[in-house]
Amino acid sequence: MTDYRHHLIRHRVLGETVVPFVCGQDGCKSTFSKLYNLLRHLKMFHDTSDESSMCSNLQETMEIESTVADDQSTATCELPFCSTSTRESISDIKAEGEVMVAALRANSSVPYAVVECVVDHCNQIAETAVHSFQNATLNSLQAAGLENDVIEKVQQSMHSQKSLLKCPLGFLSTRYKQDKHFDSHPLAVKPQTITLGSRIDVHASVSHIAYDSFQYVSIEETIRSLLQNRAYVEALFVDKCSPGIIAEWQDGLHFAHHQLISDKSKLTLMIQIFYDGMGTVNPLRGQSTMYNVGVFYFIVKNLPNVYNSSSANVHLLALCNSNELKRYSFDPVLRKVVDELNQLSTVGFSDEFPIIGTRQIYVCLGQVACDNLALNSIFGFVECFSVDFFCTMCYATQTDIQSKFYEHEFERRTIISYNRDLDKVTDPTCDKSNVFGVKRACLLNELPGFHITTNYSLDVMHIILEGIVPVELGCIMYTLCTVKHYFSLAEFRSRVHSFWGHINVDKGNKPPEISAFEKPNHRICPSMTALQMWSLLKYLPLLVGDRVPNNDENWLFLLQLSELVDLLFAPKFTHGMVSYLREIIAEHLQLFKQLYSSGKNPVSLKPKHHLLVHLPSVILNSGPLVGMSCLRYEMKNSFFKRCAHTMGNFINPCLTLAKRQQQHALMSKLYGEQIRNVVCVKRHDFIPIFTLHCSHIVCEKFGLEETDDVAVAKQLSRASVTYKSGQHVVIDVNAEGDLVFGKIEFFVSMPNSCEWYIVVNEMTTKQFDTHYHCFVIEYNHPAQYKLMTLENLLDGHAVCCYATRYSRETVHFVRLPYHVFKL
Fold first, then answer.
1. Alpha carbon distance, N-terminus to C-terminus of the chain
2. pTM of the model
3. Regarding predicted confidence, which is higher, 59 or 310?
């Protein structure tokens, strides 16, 4: 077992291990994404005394799972087990220690001071263990009656070897040694300190010069490191375009007309940049804003959205103190970004990469995705949304947004009009803070192929889930509950609690207990996260739909809002869907004005309502809105917040946070977290096929007899999505164009194969109930089973199926999280 672990650790240090780890002992099909989980499984369920058997099984599973070339050591290496050399043992100990320290440093909850303490204790334990083993050996030799000269020779030999085993992790004993060691790793990318300016500080009545700085991570070095991963390169350059479908950024008009992309002889990567302000300390403490940090990220847009949703593919670009950003503006940070991107877009860089060989790689900026305030700040527009000309895409006024609901009714910003406005702002004879919303020039306009007026990026999370939905749900719920008394607040709370106790998806996104339904123009109390607000909107028709009449105008408005949000979060579009979306947005805004803009508590349309009219154009030019959602970036911020709470050092928080993030990024590359398309199965059993209630389907698919055994599991996972028996999935579209759903029964696999299939019980779709905004399905009698792979599913996420009784019958409702279709 020890040699087996050491062998895997050696490859893990070099980033050469194949994920997932397949057990393979006696035909076991358990797979794990973490080495620790594999080793724990082996100790608990398998006899680990036979090392040779484990070596053989490891070799077989690597040959099955490996997708790397034949010259890669993970697939074809000879397993160097049974090494008895002391120096090889020391090498194994150092490799173990290196992985341990790297994992501790990558953990945002572990202070670096604790890491040094752990290393010191490990060294002490190793020294004590060696000393105890030496004494025990000598005592055993004496008890065996060996001659003193023999015992003395053994003692001298052991003493000479003891120096090698003393302090085996000494090369990682201090913070400096750890930084130096891991910064030298070929996949590591070290942050750079860039000086902003200097100031005079006084400490203990002594003046000294202090330098303001920010941390910058090179785009070129990050991409070089990523391109060393073969699976990453394969995913990067796979053909993602489907005729007539807008599913990725590459399907948009902006990509097709980009001047750098049009040159097919060049291999060009497009990146998306994000900026957000982030609090690093508890906001209830005094002077919390003193340590706020501005964080810049980027993602590679050539990678499919399904991979970019992982935080491992959100890469740090820059970290700077928010107060220093206010003092020096964004220009110093953007200047560093612009200079590097100008170099990368014109000259590029070259190296030897898997699959593509030696190629010149070019990198250019595709779009900037931020929340509304950050986007206006970076682009140099007004940062107050209660004034006119707040929009970065058009010349909208506060009066216009109350009556104009189509994009063509607004004058669009163009490069010519932007330059005209900018000239007036910079004119020394014109004493104005802004001209038509333009306050200052943006350095990003210097980049080839990019201009802020053609950015075509809006954040659907902040606009919809944190802007429009809370306001409109507040108006709807106040009217239904307080004004019309269809249900009470206590009844609503009880139904929410009961509903989340029955469903098997979105369990972690349960909304908090509602304290009150405020009057219109107020949000629902208490405040919720974006995912909690989304869950409340999705399941609200199921929660109180039976208490509200079909023709209630507020209920019809809620159903229209649900349809609108389903479309906006769709992972792919057709041009017809975009046209329909444009009409439903205009109708929705007009209906909101009719319902809530008059009476005792009139509510006017918000600036975020206006941004809705631009979303169809954004989709046509930049692809689905989920590709530019800030949700993935907000999740990345949690890493920095945990680190800030742990480190307790605010002398230079940006430097510490940047180093910790890059350590975490190194571990992500070693674990292959950038491409998480592997299926992991833990618990499973080998059972005869005849014991399954769909044995004929399994026999027909695999060509087996009913007396043969197959592996059966109740749960499997891929990336962050977990599938369990009892969940429901979208499996197909029937001849009438209706979606077909299936209930997951179990997962099955051949004993000598690593591919897993889903056995689903196909259900009949009766209708789409508009009042509940759900599909009504029923079970077939007799049951109709299908054997499918994850790739065959129409959508990769499980859907919510809620069973309830109406008129003494059990009705099954299925709620989709977003619009799904099949061509």
1. 52
2. 0.87
3. 310
